[in-house]
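Q: A reviewer asked whether we had any structural model of the full assembly, not just the individual parts. We don't, so I'm hoping you can provide one. Inputs are below.
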Amino acid sequence: MALKLNQKLLDEIRQHGAREYPNECCGVLLGKAQGDHKEVSEVVPLKNLRQDPKLAQEILPLEDIVTETERNRFLIDPREQLRVEKGARARGLEVLGYYHSHPDHPAQPSIYDREHAWPWYSYVIISVDGGGPKGLTCWVLSEDRTQFHPEKVEGANL
Amino acid sequence: MPVKVVIPTPLRQYMGKKDSVEIQAGTVGEALASLTAQYADLRKHLFNEEGKLRSFVNIYLNDEDIRYLQKSETPLSENDVISIVPSIAGGSVLRCICS
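A: Here is a predicted structure for the entire assembly that you could use as a starting point for your response.
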């Protein structure tokens, strides 16, 4: 199980995380998969819909919008996902997974990450500490949804 | 009405790797019921124990979210496309409001 991600694409993810700090950034990983091996060829930054709390609450409500904000939660607009996925399919690519940042927090998946994850997708997390991108990790949800398995990232200096 | 249902990658493993199927149905609700009757493993990922669509599953009819149409009662026309779009969400930890 491995995700191939070259240095240029890794740097795009890091730069997006730095630009959006102190808010969480998010985006999609496009490319091709062969069995458990995925090769990312494009990274598409998307808006964190939690910046629009009224719309976001209609899509996927949060329990407490005082403590849960765009600083520690992300949500991708499903219309954007649909648009990106259609465009990718037309170019022979597929959605391999998603990335998001953890501002001032380690690049480790939270319980909230796990509760909202889907199987098969690669979930890349980048830690952005004080505005500076730090570590990057990658995870795949187990079939029974009880844990994330770390996924090896190849092709770049993490 | 024959309609196409587009399946997101994480759920294709429950459908013999197909990325879409053709279903005969009159409403979106009927189409999803028919889909999960044919592919029973899909059911737990799309519906909760009470039979309601899970909160992190979005259903689009062509380019419209069905929550802004008639939800599961939304009628279908020939050659409509239903897309199952997983909500992609996450986050780090809850913040203390006093910090």
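A: Points you may want to mention in the reply: The domain at 2-154 of chain A is CATH 3.40.140.10 (Cytidine Deaminase; domain 2). The longest helix of chain A spans residues 7-20.
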